[in-house]
Specification:
With about 110 residues, the chain is mainly alpha-helical. It has helices spanning about 1-30, 75-85, 90-100; strands at about 30-35, 40-45.
């Protein structure tokens, strides 16, 4: 039984090392990246496997990146603005409700907590 488990682990490792580079190459070919006129960078990967949408937003800010005094607080400011809402959706609840009513979910994280 021990030899069987050892052989199984070796086989799994060989398959993983063989398939991972191919899968990574396939994934890289499916990714499109472009920059909008306002400077926002969009990275897109379309998959026709399921009828779902995932949107992720990342901001280049935070304690490690805020090295110049004029950048201090950018991380806090970004989170604050997102929680305050917009002119069309004046509160965080007004932003979250339409997403959650259609079965979506919104979550927030920082590199320190992920």
């Amino acid at each position: 039984m021990k030899r069987f488990l050892t052989a199984l682990v070796v086989l799994a490792a060989v398959l993983a090392l063989t398939l991972i580079p191919a899968a990574a190459g396939d994934l890289a070919a499916q990714i499109q990246s472009y920059q909008l006129d306002n400077g926002l960078r969009v990275v897109l990967r379309q998959s026709g496997e399921q009828d779902i949408v995932t949107v992720a937003m990342a901001f280049k800010c935070g304690q490690d990146l805020e090295v110049k005094p004029e950048d201090y607080g950018l991380n806090f400011w970004t989170a604050f603005i997102m929680m305050m809402g917009t002119n069309r959706r004046p509160s965080m609840n007004a932003v979250l409700r339409p997403v959650e009513e259609t079965g979506g979910a919104v979550s927030f994280a920082s590199m320190a907590s992920t």
